[in-house]
Amino acid sequence: MKILKLLSLLCVLFLCTAQSHAQQQVNRVYRMDSRSPDEIFRSAGGGFSPRGTNDNIAEHIQEYSDAGHRAAASAFISTTVNQEVAIAWGVGFQDGETFYVYDIRPTFRFYSVVLSLQRLYAQTGNRNYLRLIRVYEDQAEYVALGGISVTQIHGAQAFLYDESSGSYIEGSYILNNLYQDAETTANVSPYTPRSQLPTEIITPETYCALNLTLPRYRVRLTASTHKYPFLSKSRQCHDSLLTIAYLYTSFF
């Protein structure tokens, strides 16, 4: 059994290395955000900044970090190479409010989540990393370490809720006057954490239950769609947390 496990890890490490070399260059990523370009496209305090310095990718993608403590809060900003995923995020969670999909030029500080989780599995043999990959791989997520400068954001596509049709429609595309054009791409290698490897991982199956005990009732903003079935569990979890929060504020 140990030999089989070792061979399995060697295969994953080989595939991970081969994939990093064969990784297509990513020169455009997207991020859904409810904040308007008036706030994001500012020379002072603009762009997207992380809440902390925690570079644990497994915790980041599950939003299992303490935003109240900088050392525990995530050091990453989420983006996706799939524009449809970013739009689905907004459609599923904005509940009629306007949202924006920001068009971003990535740099070497952007890393593939799937590739990074594959590397962590190869290093540790912890199969929970494989579970995370299965749940989140369709998000096609790239994380930006340390934030995203306003000069990397090309513009923002607005999405407005149309009450007559009960659906979202495209609004105007707002250009960012502070954008600086350059030929940059995301990193083709997996992210190697500065901190020690985690000894345990919060799995997708237990994350929602754990959140029910947290006073902030935070959950990762993902949308439930038929096209992206991996999001349905997160939406159900999100709805459960909202119900708990309502009951808590109403009766306690």
Automatic annotation (TrEMBL):
Keywords: Disulfide bond, Enterotoxin, Signal, Toxin, Virulence
GO MF terms held by the record: toxin activity
Pfam families, alphabetized: Enterotoxin_a
One annotated Gene Ontology cellular component of this protein: extracellular space
InterPro entries in UniProt: Enterotoxin_A (IPR001144)
Keyword Transmembrane: no
Signal peptide annotation: 1-22
Family label: Belongs to the enterotoxin A family.
Protein name, entry field: Pertussis toxin subunit 1
